[in-house]
Amino acid sequence: MDYALTDDQRNIREAVLKHCSQFSDEYWLEHDRSGEFPTDFHLSMAEAGWLGIAMPESVGGAGLGISEAAIMVQAVAESGGGMSAASSIHGPVFSLEPIEQFGTEEQQQRMIPPILSGEQKMCFAVTEPNVGLDTTRLKTRAEKVDGGYRVNGEKIWITNAHVANKMMLLARTTPLEECERKTQGLSLFFTDLDRAHIEHRIIPKMGRHAVGSNMLFISDLFIPEEDRIGAEGEGFKIILQGLNPERILLGAEAIGLGRVAIDRAARYARERVVFDRPIGMNQGIQHPLAKCWAQVESANLMVMQAASMFDAGQDCGVQANAGKYLAAEAGFEACHTAMLTLGGMGYAQEYHVERYLREILIPRTAPVSPHMILNFIAEKVLELPKSY
Amino acid sequence: MKVLVAVKRVVDYNVKVRAKADGSDVDLNNVKMAINPFCEIAVEEAVRLKEKGVATEVVVVSIGGKTCQEQIRTALALGADRGIQVEVEGNAEPLVVAKLLKGVVEKEEPQLVILGKQSIDGDNNQTGQMLGALTGMGQGTFASEVVVDGDKVNVTREIDGGLQTVALTLPAIVTTDLRLNEPRYASLPNIMKAKKKPLDVLTPADLGVEVKSHITLLKVEPPAERSAGIKVADVDQLVDKLKNEAKVI
Ligand SMILES: Cc1cc2nc3c(=O)[nH]c(=O)nc-3n(C[C@H](O)[C@H](O)[C@H](O)COP(=O)(O)OP(=O)(O)OC[C@H]3O[C@@H](n4cnc5c(N)ncnc54)[C@H](O)[C@@H]3O)c2cc1C
């Protein structure tokens, strides 16, 4: 049992932190204000090869594991970039997993390298307005036509769809009534985001404004046969492959955000003098921060355990879910405590912690809610009756 | 043309340096270490020379304990070809470093040796000059531009009052100033490649150098804390205080 980072992992962490130091707090604050996608950051990370960290070398990746990918996105968030920075680059790290595992050689070579190089951007379109977390009931319909499929439907919360050229889409190819099992009948596609047939509308939301999420209205979109990943009807099973890595990365990002919040708060507490003493001399300020540190770092152990299990080919569903849950809760507590530590200034944008607080709510609720995680643990670990 | 670059492991420039409680030295416990920024500029310059086709091989050398291999790997990730660690425990002083580097120079026979003008820990600004004296090579210190031209290198130096360009016959020594270049950020593929690049370990004995200290560190203490500022009522009071209390005007 070894809880320390290896030399290589430490190198990766240092190199990513250093890379991110090019992008200042002001850069992220300005992008949060303008809502502009952080193009320079995304491209610089792509050009330096970071997007392919967990993809095999045969498609232009570095062939490392989800552990290293988690360390990378964590450092990205921890640099002060937060969820804005992380969500601008983490998609390719886990969303390409299905192509890597189920795509043909031709598909892998055609689809993956342009995303890793930054030449193309992608989005991941699963959630629908009328379905929510009950993914097997997705309604977006892909009807078989000559040479491919015709797609109609609506998607919601699709991050980066307004800037993407490519879309990973989960859609129904067989009506639910005709399926033997509810997990069947969905198919996965990776295709052009053809704006002649897909209208997008950005959802005004609480934070992470630089990385927008969209409503999508898909009408008569043609998808050629060769853009289907894996067998028809197997889409649900295929995307499950990418879910644990996604949870692990989101958990790692929440830890990164928690760490930077604690760091900013501790720095402020050392320097701010009120009643003739640094506010950090008061235990009422110290203890909440120390507690946050302990919680954030212990959550990190669960996230990293899940990552090493995934890399070792073990089933890590429980750990990945528990890790995401713990990391997001601890990260939230840390951002909230940081804001209170800064007093009135905590509420001012120029001190950055209010932005962290707005952003940490994303890993707290997405891609899966705390409720569903607890449902899952209750059922799988505690063997309690399935409640949903 | 072979280029030799010397790099040093120092406390990261972002870290607030603290003295040990007993004042015996700087506290390095759990402190983030990094490649000395001027050395990083030296590596970058050498790699650019290689990219331009001027240099054929870039060798990095670091003198220190095993941990300085981290900084050698960092330099390899920036594009250097191979590394040499000269195993020395503790903090080697400039003269010892210069003697060891002379040993490496004799072994490797580089045409150009690039060093930082100083390391941000000791701020001695001596090693490059001492190496020049020991080897008899010409030196261009505080470089803000380096142009290799046949068997010469033109080095633009940052000096008081402006810039000075000197032409040195190769082999020569260059020490870098801040404005020479902006070092790149290591890319992931290069970090991966760096792991596979050769890194040799030498001892001072291999280089025929005896490590002998000429300096004894007596005491390290933090600078005095600045006293709090004051608010003045008006310009007259300000002028009065500057004149009669601070005595600066
Ligand atoms: C910023 C952001 C970005 C996103 N990006 C993407 C993206 O790129 N692609 C994509 O496909 N999706 C994306 N999502 C969608 C996200 O994955 C969904 O919001 C999430 O899956 C929840 O779905 P829902 O909002 O429809 O919630 P619902 O399913 O409507 O649930 C509402 C609430 O009810 C609770 N609930 C429901 N059933 C139960 C039960 N049985 N027991 C207990 N509680 C229950 C849930 O936990 C939740 O709190 C994003 C979301 C956000 C906020």
Automatic annotation (TrEMBL), chain A:
Q: Which residues form the Acyl-CoA dehydrogenase/oxidase C-terminal domain?
A: 233-366
Q: Identify the residues that the record assigns to the Acyl-CoA dehydrogenase/oxidase N-terminal domain, covering every copy.
A: 6-119
> Which segments constitute the Acyl-CoA oxidase/dehydrogenase middle domain?
123-220
**What cofactors does this protein use?**
FAD
Q: Which UniProt keywords apply?
A: FAD, Flavoprotein, Oxidoreductase
In the UniProt record, does the keyword Flavoprotein occur? yes
Molecular function as annotated in GO? acyl-CoA dehydrogenase activity; flavin adenine dinucleotide binding
Q: Which Pfam families match?
A: Acyl-CoA_dh_1, Acyl-CoA_dh_M, Acyl-CoA_dh_N
What Gene3D superfamilies does its record include? Answer: Acyl-CoA dehydrogenase/oxidase, N-terminal domain, Butyryl-CoA Dehydrogenase, subunit A, domain 2, Butyryl-CoA Dehydrogenase, subunit A, domain 3
Q: Which domain of life is it from?
A: Bacteria
Q: Which family does it belong to?
A: Belongs to the acyl-CoA dehydrogenase family.
Annotated protein name in UniProt: Acyl-CoA dehydrogenase
User: What is the organism of origin for this protein?
Assistant: Mangrovimicrobium sediminis
From TrEMBL, chain B:
The residues that cross the membrane are none
Name any cofactors this protein relies on.
Answer: AMP
Record's keyword terms, sorted: Electron transport, Transport
Q: Name one GO molecular function term.
A: electron transfer activity
One of its Pfam families is ETF
GO BP terms in the entry: carboxylic acid catabolic process
Q: Is Transport found in the keyword set?
A: yes
Q: Do the record's keywords include Ion transport?
A: no
What PROSITE patterns does the database record attribute to this sequence? ETF_BETA (PS01065)
Domain Electron transfer flavoprotein alpha/beta-subunit N-terminal span(s) in chain numbering: 23-211
The record describes its quaternary structure and partners as: Heterodimer of an alpha and a beta subunit.
Biological role stated in the UniProt entry:
The electron transfer flavoprotein serves as a specific electron acceptor for other dehydrogenases. It transfers the electrons to the main respiratory chain via ETF-ubiquinone oxidoreductase (ETF dehydrogenase).
Q: Which family does it belong to?
A: Belongs to the ETF beta-subunit/FixA family.
**Name of the protein this chain belongs to:** Electron transfer flavoprotein subunit beta
Organism from which the protein derives: Mangrovimicrobium sediminis
